[in-house]
Amino acid sequence: MLDDGGNLSIDFLAGMTLFMVALIWVATMIPGLLIGLQSRTIDYDAVAYRTGVILVEDPGMPANPPWEIKDDLQKDEIERFGLTISKETPNILKLSKVNRFFCSTSFSYPDDYQQRVIFGDRPYRFNISLTTLDGMVNNSVGDIKPYGYGYIRRIVKMKYPSNTTIQAPNFKNSGPSANVTTHVFSLYINCTNLLGDETNPAYQIDPLGDQITVNITNLRMARVFTNLLTGDPLYNPSSLNSIKIYRQNPTQPLVQVRTVDNAYIDGGSTLSAIPPVPPGPIVNDNVSIIFPPGFFYGMATDNTQLYINYTFTLQNFGDNFFNNSFTSPYPYDYNPSRVTQPRLKEGVLEVAIW
Amino acid sequence: MARLNDDAQWIVLMGFMVSFSLIFLGIVINQSTVVGQTTAEGVLEFPKNDILNVRSAVLQSSGIAIPADFDNVKKDISLIAMSRKNAVVSFGVTDAPPGSPYTKIIDIHFNNGVTVYNETTNY
Amino acid sequence: MVNYEGQLYTIEGVAAGLIMLMTAFIVVGTTSVYTPGDTHITDMQLEQMGSDALHMMNTPNTSAASAESALQSMIKNNEKDRFRETFLSFCNTTAGGTTDTLQYSTDVYYRDTLTNSVNRYHFAESRNLTGGEHAVRVTEWVNINGAGVPPPLDNRIQAVLVEVLVWRD
Questions:
Q1: Coil, helix or strand at residue A132
Q2: Is C98 on the interface with A (CB under 8 A)?
């Protein structure tokens, strides 16, 4: 073929042209083959489903001690968020985990969440919302949802913690010398019984991991004392000198572990301090303490007996006020007439990813 | 016949090369659409809720004291699972050895043709 | 190259072009691009939510020994309205405040001890099935303990399967 004539035959041109046309036609068909592999919406829905499962069916990592009791400085120890109480109870969420997860002062959007619940290399944006069916709880974290996003909705129940309300007039001091000025009331938390009597984590009162609320009310009625001469009620306020926590482990003696430093007094919305040295704050009607989840974690184990002792001092004169030293400590247990049991409330969790 | 001018065979050769590469591409894509089957289908296929459900029904029925009633419930679950869920479910409950904190030992077997689940648990 | 001998460039070109085009058509025809599984995604979301709803209805709210789950008492007492209210409020409530438009149709499957066969009875529906709905099936095992069940269930401790067809209008 090599010559220096510099001309091509028409036959060659025709063949070459046909070949090039066919080649170009085929080349334009190739992208059509690859379209099906590029769809993005599958990815978003898959990530949303996975996030939903991580939140609703897993207790998080670390599970024991639970991740929600780690404070903000330790947040690097949290490997994965999860809202359920335990692995055996999927779809049943723990309120303390929910509150911690949605806490915007602890975790920042999107980085803290990306590493601990969304995962993946792409920087997904997301919106996670939780609401109860009765509308009382409404939490969300993330951006406003755009027009198209991957989505999953899960239906859950949230476990609300137990609490007890103690009517003071029912616990007047008995015993030989009842009219004294110093009174001690003892609350008893038997971890062995609490964890052993009810093994289903959805209904269990877990003293180590759940919030425990103790309300003592009607202290005013416990000391109605009338001046016999005038018929006027005599005012005898008490001061709350201390709230001490004792623990007894099996084969160990009873030791004091710590004191409670503040409490809600007389319906106040802020905490009142209880100084280490008496006298303490004056209490007229009620005292409330909320032990946050994980409060007893460092000081108790599954077999500990805990005693919480309130010491009151009457200011003006001795009375039989509010005292169970001569009877038995008030047990925090599964008796519904004493303790409002944990209850489950329905809710909806939505995850949107884009 | 004089030797035909076969200089143009390279055109056909190019044509064949393009065809073969197309066929190869087609094979790769064919396999990938099967392998990259949507996650949704994978989720639908795994009987997560079925297994969790059967498990909790069995655990609940493990407390039935009268053996005749328990047998009835066993037959209920096996027969209905076979006919409606296309799954073989069989389970057994025995008493735990004395001294154990649990009361029963429960065996569960579930097979829906695609997924097999076996469990022995203390309850 | 230019001479008056017979040359075959055109034929070769035509042949090459034909081969390429035929291969391309065959390949594109066989790899039939799957639509990105749209229906599977909504099916999966619906099925997960329906299962969740039934599971939550079958979890008692307290652990008292006599506590029944909502679903157990609905089957025992044939409470169709309560089922509708509870199930629809579970499925149609969203966190954003809007309501979804899911509908359901529920059957209960039980075993008849006399014939040892599985029968069903229709329990409740939110509206009649017209046959054009794209529905998913979710199920839940319910343990019934005997006394006072509505016919056709036997009066004994038994396990029944509640099957709900859920679709979005």
A1: strand
A2: no
CA angle A50, A51, A53 (to 5 degrees): 65
Q: What tokens does A49 get?
A: 């489903």
Say which of B11, B22, B39 has its CB closest to residue A42: B39
Using CA atoms, how far apart are residues C145 and A196, in angstroms rounded to an integer? 26
Cα separation, B9 vs A348, in Å, equals: 70
Token pair belonging to A239: 């001061």
Residues C14 and C51: beta-carbon distance below 8 Å: no
Structure tokens at A55: 């939140």
- Band of pLDDT at residue C12, cut at 50, 70 and 90: confident
Amino acid at A86: S
B 3-32 near C (Cβ less than 8 A): 4-9, 11-12, 14-16, 18-19, 22-23, 25-26, 29-30
Q: Check residue A303 and give its pLDDT.
A: 87
Quickly state the pLDDT bin for A74 (edges 50, 70, 90): confident
* C94–A contact, CB cutoff 8 A: yes
d(CA C48, CA C55): 10
User: Using a CB-CB distance cutoff of 8 angstroms, which residues of chain B are in contact with residue A192?
Assistant: none
Which residues contact residue B23 at a Cβ distance below 8 angstroms, ignoring those fewer than 6 apart?
C23, C27
From chain C, the residues in CB contact with A14 under 8 A are 9-10, 13
CA A223 to chain centre: 38
Alpha-carbon dihedral angle through residues A30, A33, A37, A39, given to the nearest 10 degrees? 90
The amino acid sitting at A88 is: E
Can you give the pTM of this predicted structure? Answer: 0.80
Mean pLDDT of B62-90: 90
3-state secondary structure of C46: helix
DSSP 8-state assignment for residue A180: B
Count residue pairs from A and C with Cβ separation < 8 A: 145
Q: In sequence order, what are the residues at sequence separation of 6 or more whose Cβ sits closer than 8 angstroms to the Cβ of residue A32?
A: C28, C33
C33 pLDDT above the threshold of 80:
no
DSSP state for residue A53 in the 8-state scheme: H
Residue C31 has its nearest CB partner, among B26, B41, B57, at B26
Assign A349 a pLDDT band (cuts: 50, 70, 90). Answer: very high
